[in-house]
Structure formats: structure tokens, C-alpha cells
Amino acid sequence: MFFRDKQVLVIGGTGTIGRRIVQSVLIENPRMIKVLSRDEYKQYQMQHEMENKDNLRFMIGDVRDYDRLVAAMQDIDYVFHLASMKHVSLCEANPFEAVQSNVQGTNNVIKAALAQNVKKVVFTSTDKAIAPTNAYGATKLIAERLFASVEQSGKKGTTVFSCVRFGNVMGSRGSVIPLFKEQIEKNKRVQITDREMTRFMMTLSQAANLTIQALKEAKGGEIFVLKMPVVKLADLVTILIEETCKKLKIAKDAVTVDIVGSRSGEKMYEELMTEDESKQAFELSDMYMIPGKFSNVNKYKNAKKAIVDTYSSQLQQPITLEQLRALLIKEGLV
Q: Max alpha carbon distance in the chain (Å)?
């Protein structure tokens, strides 16, 4: 097992994906997992839910605090960097706060990992980092560049830095699924931006498992782009109305759908990989890999050249209504 007897740090480990990563890594019997986050209450909840495991430690801290990161990374082998400001509207309203968390915080993670000779660090990025139209996407793009620059600068040390890029995670904190369900239950009214809007979406299990896989595969400087199904917003709303109304025993016609238009910085579709990136990219079984400057593609099993094209939710075929329904039911989201 990859993590057996290893020491792992999950920064932002009390978040939705962080918790699932912690649960998955625990199965492999690591010597220690440290969970670093700034939310005391969530740490308290998680500690009791995981039954105070002997090889699980919780640390209050913030990526803005370099000294705390250095302390957290002492004797650590692998780091998952998941912490960031994530909500588009809040980052738009507080751009400098987003810079401090997502840019300065990521730079602190890099410096601390180098100082403590961590073996590997993987950073979770977003489709919104491609041709960003909002502050959130811009900060994540710069964070990706920070990770790439470490490998390109040839800094001394053995730490491997890589990024993993994905879209929306179904049911995660702040995602549209719980929001839409709440609107249906409380107001019998759903507010959506546009019926034709498309998004890359994946389940929580897929996001966590593929992030772990990316860390295992990382050789240095890569961006791993996870393959994700495309979902049409109109289809998602249709299923949530049908299933929620069935549960509440009300007629689905009683629910009104309001089209409110796009918010500031919001796109009709998202991109996970540009055409220029695809020219360099290789396709693996569950993801694409954009190599770093020093990557040796021959080290990747069954890697083949990717098709040159923009990997966009506008150009991909959305999954069918029934495929989406089955996915939501399987994940317990409806």
C-alpha cells in the first residue's frame, strides 16, 4: 500500500473532499495523518466521527501562516493542499482576501514543503483557472503557476510538486445541488442562471480517489486534468424537482423555475484544458496529464498523446437525464 507507515498532511482536511481523502488514506494504515484547517468546530465534529483514531491528529492553522505550515510539515512524507477560498461571489467581493489565501497561502505551502523536505505535494485546482473571468479563477491560475515555477527553477530539494484540476463536485459544501433542494423544499421556487449552461461534475468519491491517484502518479510539475462527465443545468434542475417533489409528495408543477441570468464572472460553460495545453498533454485511463518541464513521459503506464482540442463543457456531450438521475441516486443526493 502506498501510504502504509507514511505520514500525510491534509491541508483543508475538514472540507468535503478533504474528509473523503482522509478516510481513504486511513484504509492504507499510514503512520500518521495530520488534518490542518482553521475551522475549530469542524475539526471537533470530524474527530468524534472518526472515533479519535490514534493515527489521526488535528491542527488549527491557516495557509496564511508560514510558521504554522512549517510545524505541520515536520516529518511529513506527502501533502494534499486543498485549502482555499472557493466561492466565486465571495472572492469577487473580497479579491485581496482571495489572493492572501489562494496565492500567498499556496506560496507558503511550497516554501514550507521545501524547508521540511516533503516527498510530494499535490494542489487541487479548478476548471475556473482556464481563461479566468473571475477573481477566484485568477487566483487558482496563479497558484498553478507557482507550483510549475518550482520545478522550472530547479530549486534544490527532492520535493515533487504537481496540480490536479477538476470541476464541480456533486454535493460538496456550497454546490448547487443542496442549494436547489433547499429552494424547492422551502420556497417551491428554483433560481437558475440559464437552462443551457453546462458544467463538469463528478462525484465526491471520484474527486477524492483521482486526487489520491494523481499524487501517486506525480513525477514533478505535471497538471493532472481529471476526466469528468458534463451536466446540463436544465437536466439537473429537472431531476431535483422531480425527486424532491416525489419525496415531499407534492406536484412538480407546483415548483416555479426562475431564470435570473449569469452572475458577475460566471461563464455559460467551463474549460478543463486549453487547446495549447492539449498539444503537450498525454491521456491516461482516468485523466489527462500535462507534463512539467522535467517530466519523463515514459514513466507513465499506458500514456498516449491526447487529441488536440479544447476540453470544454460546451464541446462535450452531456450525460443523459437518466444517467444523471442514476448518479445522483447512487451518491444519495436525491
A: 65
Which residues are catalytic, by number? Answer: 128
User: Do 321 and 237 form a contact (C-beta atoms < 8 A)?
Assistant: no
Torsion, Cα of 242, 246, 247, 248 (10° steps): 100
Closest CA to 285 of 232, 200, 227: 227
- Quote the distance between the C-alpha of residue 147 and its chain's center: 16
**Contact status, residue 230 vs residue 302, Cβ threshold 8 Å:** no
Condensed to tens digits (0 to 9), the pLDDT of residues 22-41 reads 999 999 999 999 999 999 99
**pLDDT tens, residue by residue, 66-103:** 999 999 999 999 999 999 999 888 999 999 999 999 99
Taking each continuous run of H as one helix and of E as one strand, the counts in the chain are: 12, 17
Q: How far apart (Å, rounded) are the C-alpha atoms in residues 265 and 92? A: 8
Quote the CA–CA distance of 144 and 47 in Å, as a whole number.
31
Does the predicted model carry a pTM greater than 0.70? Answer: yes
120-139: burial string, b at 16+ Cβ within 10 Å, e else: bbbbbbbbbbbebebbbbbb
> What is the Cα–Cα distance from 105 to 158, expressed in whole angstroms?
21
Residues in the chain: 334
